[in-house]
Amino acid sequence: MNFKTTLIILLIFIVFGGSYLLFFQDKPADDSDADQPKIGDAYALGKDDIRRMRISFNDTAYAPLSLTKDVDSAWQLTEPIAADAQGAKIDEMLAGLLNKKIKRTLEVAALPEYELDPPKIQIKLWTTGESPAKTFLIGKRTVNYSVYAKEGSEPHIFLIESSALEDFTKSPSDLRDRSALKFDPEEVTALTLRVMGESEIRCHKRDANLWQMDEPVETAADAKAIESILSALDALKVVVFVEDGAADVTPYGLDTPRIQVRLDLSDGNTQSLLIGGDDEATGRIYTKRADLDAVYAVNSEIYASLNKSVFDLRSKRVIDFQRTAAIRFEIERQGKNKVVCEKNSGGEWEIRAPVVLKADASAVDDLLFGVDSLKAVEFAADSPKSLQPYGLDAPSIKVSFTTTDEDTVALLIGDLKGETVYVKSQNAEPVYAVKKNLIDLVGVGVAALRDKQILDFDSDSAVKLSLRHGDTNLTCQKQGTNWRLIHPVQEDAKNGTVNTILYQLGELKVEEFVADTHDATRTGLDAPAIQVNVTLKDGTEHVLQIGKPAESEHLHARLWRSPDTVFLLKAEVAETFKKTVEDLRAIPDEA
What we know:
- This protein is of the alpha+beta class.
- It starts with a helix and ends in a 7-residue tail after the last helix.
- The protein has 15 helices and 36 strands.
- The relative contact order is 0.06.
- The chain is about 20% helix and about 35% strand.
């Protein structure tokens, strides 16, 4: 290569390099971000000052977009269609433009070279008046993530981030509000639901969390079920804007909608949605607002959320009382003694009839909770002419509850129907069917409600312990703070082992009370296999007797002073009392 050729190549390199530095570099090496003003600052524009915007495109595939803030400062799309706009997205677009930094200002002679005449995108912004406050033109993209831009009234151009092209290249669908309905669930005062082939359901809000069903039956409504519908409608989004200005909605199944729902709002306005047919290609569902000739496609889950029956929306609560307010209840069973439980002055439950006993707090809580939360699985009759078909004219069980304000409510339990049983509140007309396990819950006697703790004593108060099983008969006596074996040998006992036995006795719980207690031979309690005697400081003696095995790995047991009260203990618990001398005698230095 000769010198002349080399010189020419060098000159070409210098020319192109200089051009690149002039037109494509963001800024000189010694420039800083602080020297780059934002568009909003340079042109005295604030996002909240802008009341109107028009975006037009050189690419005819994109329709011009016009947006205007209404009296409530909510953005509305006015061109090419009238529709609610996504305010957050519009604000984001404007903030993105106004916060972009002007990287470099250039004085140029010909705008077409930079695709600024005509521009790729033209953005007109209005603040007040009929004329736009500013017009921005977006042109060609450069090789360094910038685009050429220009304010319409100025001769120079400038460089900004190229994301401006993507930010403003939008279709109407990109900017439309996708809420199928626009409402605040807290402002809904009434709901009307019509499912094809079913009776129209109308409900109104009685109080903050209480709903009343007015049609087709007057009764309490299920507040949670209605709130679930409102939540689903509030969250429902348009996936596809299928057709605006639809003159014929028949192809979409909206001429005879499968579901219609209307919401009455506290300001007197209403919102209504129609659910039509399926889009077989996508599985979505066609919908439309009753007040708009626009068809939308939404995800199919909304159908299940709205496809509700009267049963779904009416309250399934059988009896109206608060378990935490209950202070007394009575259980009346045909052919059985009445069971009465009441809270004492200390707030503890006691059995008052047919015997006086401490009640099992857990068993009482289970009963109260089960009735308080009792739900219908079927509405048998709202206004029955007779209670005899349901066995409620002479109920097999009646449970009455008295609350702190001295109100009394009663639950009547009638005949079985398969896996359910008929019930009703004594003070209300409707007859319900509920799961039959209610009978096991409330049809209980003293044995199920009495306290399950067998021996109520403090292990520190014990002074003597005897264990007898088979040929083994052991006795320990407390001397000071230590235990000593006194039979069949006399020597120090293991304090830890003896104290563990006493602790287990004090914590011992009944697994189940046995109803038939008359045959001591059958239970093995005529000659107990295990007997435990505990004597306390005050001379009180407790005697636990354990007999023959029962079903399910349990043993029969009783207290010597209450021979007619037989209960079941776990066999593994009983084994802990079968100690030997070797188990109890102290090893030197370990007593």
